[in-house]
Backbone:
């Protein structure tokens, strides 16, 4: 893959389409999240999860019946089957079971299947705290990144990389709303991983833009600036593709071959990696381009405004 | 002009590295503690409330609770329990590999506050009157298991029994033995129940001036042993309320672990193969440094006695990605420099130098994010952050300096002079200076 000047990928030319696509996606995502919402696991909603392991294949009806047999009032709000032969079942209850209820259920299933079911419970505050802390962390980290990038680069690079970062995290959340996979603690880890990857990816591209900006003599028109961005993106394109490909190898392998428990986690990783590459190539740099041009234009007009003697007669 | 000594040095380093890794990697891998999500087990987060109204939860009461819980966990025979204080009033108990969750739950949360009361629920003797470690299991005449406890003061028990005899007439001449008596519990009510909350309500027929007493309660042997152990591990100074628990079946955890390790091997194998095909000789160097990276991360993690969880694996994957990325950035730079017409030697030097600042910026921003996550996150997010920081630092060392050292030995031997194809650059792509 050698991108010479004559066969460059015209990233900047189509920037408005990318902006429009991301805007539409974001709006659709907000609508989707406010209607369909997320399939929150009990990590985030008050509830209990009972993990039943049987010797034989189970069906959903059977599991509901078994719970009804175990005692009055045990009606799972959701039952999902797992395992190679559906010999496992996860029954979730909204609202926490107390210790006596847990014991009753466990005793019943020990008699039935000779296997003690695992019971997990969570009160709403714990899950919400976890999500809240993760969110606060991401926001604070974003501010830290803006500060660091502003010192090392320029303020606008920092803002654009944070937009890319939030875009990628939001993208995963929306996809999870579409497919309605369960959102649990590993999901948060996946989103955080993508946040890390997204920063890394965007900064590498920005580094090249900055370098090329230093080497460019003078920027007079928008096209001059666009040229720098286009060249930089093309110079780092091979690296971007190779890097994301290698990481996607790992994530897809874990998705296909890893255990059931890790599947939604690795799915989130794959989605996030794609979003991360997209945002670095098509979103962050183009946003920076537009903003940078505006600030350059403002600077050009500045000297007039700064000189009060020049200004006053006009007023 | 080829300096063979450098190439020899390269192979010596590889041989040493290969030797160390192959000798110790299995021990390292086995030494890593796996989280509950990977090996199965049981985790409870308790909110600690004062046992009596008005008292406050202090650092000391939390510490005392943790040591009491530690003793109790020993009863379960858990090899490496992890009991930690979280925030101001929470205690997280992680029991890896526990099969019997029900017993664990009971054992942990039982206050073990033994009290002796009359039928009107007035306290006559409390848990504090018990001798430490004085509880054991015995058998009565009909070979029924009983729990024997030793009191500190035989006279006190004698007086209590005498008082009962004076104050009450049959059938109310009882000394009711309660475990974890709570405000509102009443003997009169529980007496009607099929399974009363109190342990036993023996009748007192004569004053008993001795220290050893028996608690009978139609126990099964296991129940009696459980009770004795709980009493010996002391009463909890606080009330524990379960606010979160997470249980992973051992078989499920093991299954996840095996499959994930297998998938990880395949994934890393693919990455190495891709690097070697795309970057030729440089890819081989990348493969060597990546192997070293994974080995070093696991070793450091072992030293830190970290617990590897699913989020930890996520951080490891991200670290692999960043290590690969650092290699790719450097190699792409070197290729660019070769294409621009520089000699292999100077392309290597300037490529390494110019890629360094890029890698540094990318890594520092990610470490910054990881640091914030560590500071604000709770247990699993923190684990992720720690693993991420270790991964980034290690990947920086191996992918930047390791790669530079190994590749430098070959480049400086001059064996590759005028051989850009080794670096995946075609002669036709090179611009004349």
Residues:
């Amino acid at each position: 893959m050698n991108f010479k000047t004559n066969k460059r990928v015209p990233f900047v030319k189509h920037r408005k389409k990318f902006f429009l696509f991301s805007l539409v996606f974001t709006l659709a995502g907000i609508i989707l999240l406010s209607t369909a919402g997320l399939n929150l696991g009990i990590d985030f909603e008050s509830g209990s999860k009972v993990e039943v392991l049987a010797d034989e294949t189970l069906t959903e009806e059977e599991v509901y019946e078994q719970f009804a047999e175990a005692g009055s009032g045990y009606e799972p709000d959701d039952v999902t089957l797992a395992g190679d032969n559906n010999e496992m079942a996860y029954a979730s209850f909204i609202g926490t079971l107390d210790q006596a209820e847990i014991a009753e259920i466990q005793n019943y299933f020990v008699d039935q299947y000779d296997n003690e079911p695992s019971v997990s419970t969570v009160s709403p505050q714990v899950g919400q705290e976890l999500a809240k802390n993760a969110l606060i962390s991401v926001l604070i980290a974003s501010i830290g990144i803006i500060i660091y990038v502003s010192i090392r680069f320029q303020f606008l690079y920092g803002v654009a990389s944070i937009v890319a970062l939030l875009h990628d995290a939001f993208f995963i959340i929306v996809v999870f709303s579409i497919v309605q996979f369960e959102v649990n603690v590993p999901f948060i880890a996946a989103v955080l991983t993508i946040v890390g990857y997204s920063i890394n990816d965007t900064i590498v591209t920005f580094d090249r833009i900055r370098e090329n900006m230093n080497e460019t003599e003078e920027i007079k028109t928008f096209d001059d600036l666009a040229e720098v961005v286009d060249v930089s993106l093309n110079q780092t394109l091979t690296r971007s593709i190779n890097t994301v490909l290698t990481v996607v190898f790992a994530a897809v392998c874990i998705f296909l071959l890893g255990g059931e428990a890790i599947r939604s986690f690795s799915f989130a990783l794959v989605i996030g990696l794609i979003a991360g590459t997209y945002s670095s190539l098509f979103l962050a740099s183009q946003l920076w381009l537009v903003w940078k041009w505006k600030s350059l234009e403002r600077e050009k007009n500045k000297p007039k405004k700064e000189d009060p003697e020049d200004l006053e007669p006009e007023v | 002009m080829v300096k063979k000594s450098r190439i020899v040095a390269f192979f010596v380093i590889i041989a040493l590295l290969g030797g160390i890794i192959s000798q110790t990697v299995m021990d390292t891998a086995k030494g890593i503690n796996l989280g509950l999500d990977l090996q199965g087990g049981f985790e409870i987060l308790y909110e600690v409330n004062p046992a009596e109204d008005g008292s406050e939860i202090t650092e000391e009461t939390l510490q005392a609770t943790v040591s009491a819980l530690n003793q109790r966990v020993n009863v379960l025979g858990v090899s490496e329990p992890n009991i930690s204080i979280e925030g101001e009033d929470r205690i997280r108990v992680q029991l890896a590999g526990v099969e019997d969750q029900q017993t664990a739950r009971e054992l942990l949360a039982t206050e073990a506050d033994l009290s002796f009361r009359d039928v009107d629920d007035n306290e006559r003797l409390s848990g504090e009157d018990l001798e430490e470690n004085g509880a054991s299991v015995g058998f009565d005449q009909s070979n029924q298991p009983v729990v024997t406890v030793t009191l500190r003061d035989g006279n006190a028990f004698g007086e209590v029994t005498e008082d009962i005899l004076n104050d009450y007439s049959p059938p109310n001449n009882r000394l009711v033995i309660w475990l974890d008596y709570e405000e509102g519990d009443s003997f009169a009510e529980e007496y009607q129940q099929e399974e009363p909350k109190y342990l036993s309500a023996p009748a007192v027929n004569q004053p008993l001036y001795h220290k050893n007493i028996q608690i009978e309660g139609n126990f099964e042997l296991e129940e009696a042993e459980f009770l004795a152990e709980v009493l010996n591990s002391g009463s909890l100074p606080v009330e524990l309320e379960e606010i979160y628990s997470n249980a992973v079946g051992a078989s499920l955890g093991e299954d996840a672990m095996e499959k994930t390790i297998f998938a990880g091997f395949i994934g890393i194998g693919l990455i190495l193969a891709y690097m070697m095909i795309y970057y030729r000789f440089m890819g081989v160097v990348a493969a060597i440094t990546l192997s070293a990276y994974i080995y070093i991360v696991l070793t450091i993690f072992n030293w830190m006695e970290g617990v590897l969880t699913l989020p930890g694996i996520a951080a490891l994957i991200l670290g692999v990605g960043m290590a690969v990325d650092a290699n790719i950035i450097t190699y792409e730079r070197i290729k660019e420099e070769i294409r621009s017409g520089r000699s292999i030697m100077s392309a290597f030097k300037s490529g390494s130098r110019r890629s360094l600042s890029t890698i540094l910026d990318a890594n520092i921003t990610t470490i910054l994010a990881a640091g914030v996550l560590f500071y604000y996150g709770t247990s699993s997010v923190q684990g992720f952050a720690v693993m991420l920081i270790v991964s980034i630092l290690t990947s920086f060392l191996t992918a930047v300096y390791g790669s530079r050292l190994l590749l430098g030995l070959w480049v400086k031997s001059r064996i590759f002079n005028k051989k850009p194809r080794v670096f995946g650059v075609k002669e036709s792509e090179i611009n004349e200076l």
User: Anything to note?
Assistant: Chain B has a mean pLDDT of 81. The radius of gyration of chain B is 33 Å.
